[in-house]
Amino acid sequence: MNMDQSTALFEKAKQVIPGGVNSPVRAFLSVGMTPPFIRSARGARLKDADGNEYIDYVCSWGPLILGHAREEVIDAIREAAADGTSFGAPTEREIELAELICSALPAVEMVRMVNSGTEAVMSAIRLARGFTGRKKILKFEGCYHGHSDALLVEAGSGLLTLSLSSSAGVPEEFVKHTLTVPYNDCEKLETIFEAAGAELAAVIVEPVAGNMGVVKPDSQFLRLMRRLTEKYGSVLIFDEVITGFRVSFHGAQGYYGISPDLTVLGKIIGGGMPVGAYGGRKDIMRLVAPLGPVYQAGTLSGNPVAMAAGIKTLQILKDNPAIYREIDDKAAQLEKALIDFSDKYRIPLCVNRVGSLLSAFFTDETVTDYRTAKTADTSRFATFFSTMFNQGIYIAPSQFEAMFISGAHSDADIKQTIAAIEKSFAGMQP
Ligand SMILES: *Cc1c(COP(=O)(O)O)cnc(C)c1O
C-alpha cells in the first residue's frame, strides 16, 4: 500500500502538533505504523491522501452510526450553517434535540448541552457533588470517562487506598476522592459501599464498557449498583457517550432496563459534530446554573450546526428502528467469523459483543474486566491490525477499543471483511 502522502503529512504534522495528532490513539503508536491522513469519506468507506480506500470500523470512534457524510445530515448541517454558525443565544434547535433525547431516555427529564463527552462527565460529577454535598466518587477500572483530572486515576489502586493519577500534571490531591473497583466485581462493589457508601457523591460507569475493548456488564452488576446507590443516596451516573443511541435507541439504560439518576451523552447525539450532554432527574438538574448553585457554562454550547446534525441523526434512527436490527446482525456475522476462524486456525481469541459494538481480544481468557482484558496479546493484535489494514480494512489501531458497525456497512462490506479476517488468521502462528 502506497502511503507516501500520509507519511509526508505525518512528518509535517509532527513539527507543529504534539505527536502529529490531536488525540493520542490516532498516532498508531501501539501498532507501530504510520496513520493514514484521511481526505474524504462516504458511507462505510474512508479515502486517504494517497487515494487508498478502507472499509471503516472506527466510524469516528462511534458517532457515525449512519456512516460518513450521510446526505440528510450533511444537508441539515449546510442549512444550519447558512443561517449563521453561532449566536451565543438560545435557538429552537436546542429544544428539538433536548426533546428528542428526553423522549428516547425517560430517565433524562432535563438535559444540558456541552461540547464534548469529557466536558459532560466533568459537569455531571460536579453536579452530583453539588446535589449530595459529598466529595468521593467511584469508578470502575478500565472505564474511560474523558480526560478531566478527577477521572484520570490509575486502575488497580487498592480499595479505599489513595488513588494514583494516571497522567502527569494531575496532582494526587485531585484524584484522592476517586475510588476504583474492578468492572463486574459485585463483591468489591458491596464492600466499598459498606465502607464508604455514605461518603459517595456518585458512581459513574460505562453500562457496557467500550474503552478497554468491549466488556459486557454481568446481569447483576448494574442492578446491584442501582440498589446500592439508592440505599446510600449516591447519584448513579451512566456514561452513555458510546452506548447512547448505539446499543438501542433507548441506550444501554433501555437495553438493560435500569434507570440511572444522571446520563452522560456525546458521540452519536452530535451526528459527527462536536457535542456532549448531561441530563437526568429534574430535582438534580434544577441545581445547574442559572437555576441553581452548580456552575457550568459554554460559549459554543448548543451550537446550531451541531444541533442540526444531531437532530437529523436521531430522527433518522427514530424513524428507522430496523437500523438497529441490521447493524446488530452485521456485527453478529463478524463475531461468528472471528470465532469460527479462531477455531479453524487455532488462534486464542475472546470475542465480546453487545449489539453493534464488538471487540476481539487475542487471549485464552474470558474478558470480563480490565485485568482479563490486559491478558490480550497486543503484539498479535498489531499483526492482525496491519494485515487487515493492508487489505483495506480500517479497525481501531489498539487492542482495547471497540469495532463500530454503521448503517452504511453493506453485506458486501461485511463479506469482504470476513474474507480479510480469514486471510489474517491463516497467516498467523497458532
Ligand atoms: C469518548 C468517550 C468520552 C469522552 O468524550 P470526548 O468527546 O472524547 O471528550 C467519555 N466517555 C466515554 C464512555 C467515551 O467513550
Describe the structure.
The strands form three sheets. A seven-stranded mixed beta sheet has the order 4-10-9-8-7-5-6, sandwiched between helices. A four-stranded mixed beta sheet has the order 1-2-3-13. A three-stranded antiparallel beta sheet has the order 11-12-14, with helices on one face. It is built from 14 helices and 14 strands. It has two domains: 4-69 and 321-426, Aspartate Aminotransferase, domain 1 (Alpha-Beta Complex), CATH 3.90.1150; 71-319, Aspartate Aminotransferase, domain 2, CATH 3.40.640.10. It is of the alpha/beta class and 430 residues long. Helices cover 38% and strands 15% of the residues. Helix 8 links the parallel strand 8 (235-239) and strand 9. The chain starts with a helix and ends with a helix. The chain has helices spanning 4-16, 71-82, 92-104, 117-132, 172-175, 186-196, 219-232, 251-256, 282-285, 304-319, 322-344, 370-373, 378-390, 411-426; strands at 38-42, 45-48, 53-56, 110-114, 136-141, 178-182, 200-205, 235-239, 262-266, 276-280, 350-354, 357-361, 393-394, 403-404. Helix 11 packs parallel to helix 14 (411-426) and helix 13 packs across helix 14. The chain binds pyridoxal-5'-phosphate. Pyridoxal-5'-phosphate binds next to helix 4.
Euclidean distance between termini CA atoms: 26 Å
Helix content range: 25-40%
What overall form do the CA principal axes indicate?
A: globular
What's the helix count? Answer: 14
By CATH reckoning, the class of the largest domain would read Alpha Beta
Order of helices and strands: HEEEHHEHEHEHEHEHEEHHHEEHHEEH
Unreliable stretches (pLDDT < 50, length at least 5) are none
Write down the overall mean pLDDT. 96
Number of domains: 2
Number of strands: 14
Strand line-up across the major sheet: 4-10-9-8-7-5-6
Radius of gyration: 21 Å
Instruction: Give me the CATH fold name of the largest domain.
Output: Aspartate Aminotransferase, domain 2
Q: Percent of residues in beta strands? A: 5-15%
Oligomer designation: single chain
Please tell me the CATH architecture of the largest domain by its name: 3-Layer(aba) Sandwich
SSE class:
alpha/beta
The small molecules bound here are:
pyridoxal-5'-phosphate
CATH superfamily of the largest domain: Type I PLP-dependent aspartate aminotransferase-like (Major domain)
Main sheet properties? 7 strands, mixed
